[in-house]
Amino acid sequence: MTQISLTDIFQGYTKRRGVFKNKNTLSIAFTPENIPHREDQIKQLGMILAPLLGGEKPSNIFIYGKPGTGKSLCIKHISEKINERANGKVRTLYINCKMRRVSDTEYRLLSQLLSFFDVEVPYTGLPTDSLYNKFFKLLDEKEQNVLLVLDEIDALVKKVGDGILYNLTRINQELEKTKLTIVGISNNISFINDMDPRVKSSLSEEEVLFPPYNASEIKDILRERSLLAFNENALSPGVLEKCSALAAQEHGDARKALDLLRIAGELAERMGNEQVLKEHVDVAEKKLDRDKTMEIIKSQPKQSQCVLLSVIDLYKSGTKNIQTGDIYDVYTRMCKKAGVKVLTQRRVSDLISELDMFGILNSKVISKGRYGRTREIRLSMSLDMINKIENFLKHVLI
DNA sequence: CCTCCACAGGAAGCGCAGGAGT
DNA sequence: ACTCCTGCGCTTCCTGTGGAGG
């Protein structure tokens, strides 16, 4: 009985003509066959990495460019292509270095690398050196060519220093059988300059720059993907233009454009429309912003959440020029109420910096002369959003 | 000119959970 | 069971500092 009605539902769903033909082609996981407006970069990377095909070690590469400019995508694309040609002789290890509690320290990064070889290590207890040795042995077990892609490497270096990179580049020199090529990807251009010169010279033997897309380039990208993703005539006129324009405002972020398009499509489908309208894009933009920040906030530890709620409290009570000391006062009361351990101001100061890094807060160090030097903290979102966060945090904490 | 506020943010080290070796 | 190790979140202690008020 249940099964029958379920099949009915599913059949009804598949029979109904939605707007999507293949939604996956809009996700970040999808690597398209053709990457518009990145011909130069792909050519450059291809030339640098071509020695892999002859079993030679290419130069290490440093890639930089703003978010959503196709850095990871191009690397993924090229490594897939190379692998096809080399009959799987080239192994690509991709790591995003920013993931909290996953790859945001040297130890955790190595433990991630080891897990690619199906080696699980305890989350603490072992010396980092021993992880290096394990990794080293695994690499040198057999002859192979390994491409190590470290995405958002600037975040990691900022947090724990450039020692990791130094160690990795050194491992490379000591390997006998295996050749390890390191590809560092960074959103921040200036970051490479204040690294140890030894690391700098060995990591950025080659540099590739990914400039932001402009609105018409983003539109090209969207058009191409929309042909794969949507049914014919599912997009009303102006939808692509709107997505492109919105994303171009945000330093030419193609990923944002794709997200907008996908969410707009989902909204249209959910509302039973046969066409995606410009209005859907408007709603999608709000939803995208909201979802992103909520996602980050949910993943924060309780202590950070307390800090954030304190900032919101101050904001709502009309305090202007919110500073660290104010926050700490409210924060201590908040913790007691929520039954959470009160951390020191030093630590809270770091938590504020973290929230700043995630883009949830804006903090700026200012000097008020006689009245000291502190950080001024501002919330950079709509009142609507602040209310939403407040509700969520109160629900979770109190 | 100097002073002095209210912190920023670096350095060191502590305690805990969890290894490895004996 | 014991010792001795480690990484990590956190505390403790510290020095540094831009500029308004004197």
General description of the model:
With 398 residues, the chain is of the alpha/beta class. The protein is built from 16 helices and 8 strands. The chain has helices at 2-15, 39-49, 71-85, 106-116, 128-140, 153-160, 163-174, 197-203, 215-229, 239-249, 254-270, 278-299, 302-316, 324-338, 345-357, 383-397; strands at 61-65, 90-96, 145-151, 179-186, 206-210, 322-323, 361-367, 373-379. The strands form 2 sheets. It has a 5-stranded parallel β-sheet, with helices on both faces. It has a 3-stranded antiparallel β-sheet with strand order 6-8-7. Strand 7 and strand 8 (373-379) form a beta hairpin. Helix 2 (39-49) packs across helix 3 (71-85) and helix 10 (239-249) crosses helix 11. It is globular and about 65 Å long. The mean pLDDT is 89. It binds a DNA duplex (22 and 22 nucleotides) through helix 4, helix 5, helix 15, strand 7 and strand 8.
Short characterization:
The chain has 16 helices and 8 strands. The model has no long low-confidence stretch (mean pLDDT 89). It is 54% helix and 12% strand.
